[in-house]
Amino acid sequence: MAKSKSTYSCTECGGQTLKWQGQCPHCQAWNTLVEAMSEKAAARFTPVSESREVQSLSEVEAEEEQRYSTGLLEFDRVLGGGLVQGGVVLLGGDPGIGKSTLLLQALCNMSLLPLARNVLYVSGEESARQVAMRAKRMGVDAKALHLLAEIRLERIQEVLAERKPDVAVIDSIQTVYSDALQSAPGSVAQVRECAAQLTRLAKASGTGMILVGHVTKEGALAGPRVLEHMVDTVLYFEGDTHSSFRLIRAFKNRFGAVNELGVFAMTEKGLREVSNPSALFLSHHGGQVPGSCIMVTQEGTRPLLVEIQALVDEAHSPNARRLSVGLEQNRLAMLLAVLHRHAGIACFDQDVFVNAVGGVKITEPGADLAVLLAIVSSLKNRPLPEKTVVFGEVGLAGEVRPVQRGLERLREAAKLGFVQAIVPKANKPKATPPGIEIIAVERVEEAVARMR
Ligand code: TYD
Ligand code: MG
């Protein structure tokens, strides 16, 4: 295509230039110019749906969307009950975590009876032979799966328009490129353009589409942020590659609840669903050890018990280290300040490491109290009482704030044989679940006093 078709637009101010430059001539920002398609390149502005008249909302047909089950209950749960017709899902995750494995399994399930959907797997990363070998190794029945090993967007569009599959997987969006742009596959302009074109096609044809996305070193989806706005659902596949457990989590979902969690185990025959995961993330060391505290976190509709570990050790450099794995680093610094100010326990000359066992990432503030007690336990070298769970958010004033769905968390802990729970006062239930004693605390000092 002729060179003049490309323009460059600034991601900061939106200004346009004809030539690439290091600095935007409009807003003077550096390294913000990315290639964009010029307005002459037509299809870009074709609308998603037919209607152009103003309508009253009540006239618009609002039928319940049709959903395609993936044949994997855990995957369906995260999607909010299955893949929506014409919906576009972006699935991100570290390399080797199992994205291709999961989607191959899901597509095979969908292509077979009783679902018998017309499915298409577009592989840009692996050759047809490699995908076939993987399916064989996993022992899945792939006879009804249609495969296309292609990275040219125009060809993929052709095949999609011709075959009109119910469900299509693009593995991955970073490998797809369009002839209309000159930048390399995986560049911001290519990823944005290809994803926009595919999204439009999915909406127009009713194909449910799953785009696989790479993640950057920092763990965010690679490519432009606008990708996440464009699609209907953003899922992350996460887990510790050293353990066999994998979690799939929704970050955005136009068709269901977010923060739902699907749990799988990676086996030599692909991914296996784990339908009762609540006790998965407890490290089963015998007896109680200092620096360990069990918390109950609520992910979507399911409570999960997770062990929080802390190690507090004398610092040997002037700058004491604060490191956290699976928990927020900034929150750790805040919690240490609260501990000092309100409970009189100083850690400024101590290195502090905290870890959520099993590779889970805990984003809810309900973990605060458990992190604090694990730190105090390690510092004092004294274990928490046996069979105790903890949850609660900690505020800057030293108050312990309630968390959502406290009763469900307590019920799950009681079911798993825990006998004591340190919880925010406002979460103390009127009727205590049988077998568990509730210790309600209002302030950090009270909780810490329980350790003495
Ligand atoms: P893959 O799906 O290729 O990851 P992604 O597409 O996210 O990059 O998963 C590859 C990993 O999964 C690889 O390290 C081997 C492992 N694996 C199994 O343990 N069992 C299996 O049956 C398969 C197919 C893969
Ligand atoms: Mg892959």
Order of the strands making up the biggest sheet: 8-7-9-10-6-11-12-13-14
Radius of gyration: 26 Å
What value does the average pLDDT take? 87
CATH superfamily of the largest domain: P-loop containing nucleotide triphosphate hydrolases
The largest sheet is:
9 strands, mixed
Alpha plus pi helix count: 10
Structural class: alpha/beta
Secondary-structure arrangement, i.e. CATH architecture of the largest domain: 3-Layer(aba) Sandwich
Number of strands: 23
Number of domains: 3
Top-tier CATH class of the largest domain: Alpha Beta
Bound molecules: thymidine-5'-diphosphate, magnesium ion
Distance between the termini: 74 Å
CATH topology of the largest domain: Rossmann fold
**Helix share, percent:** 10-25%
| Global outline | globular
Low-confidence stretches: none
Classify the beta-strand content into a percent band: 25-35%
GO molecular function: ATP binding; ATP-dependent DNA damage sensor activity; damaged DNA binding; hydrolase activity; zinc ion binding
Binding site for ATP: 93-100
GO cellular component, one term: cytosol
InterPro entries: AAA+_ATPase, DNA_repair_RadA, P-loop_NTPase, RecA_ATP-bd, Ribosomal_Su5_D2-typ_SF, Ribsml_uS5_D2-typ_fold_subgr, Rubredoxin_2
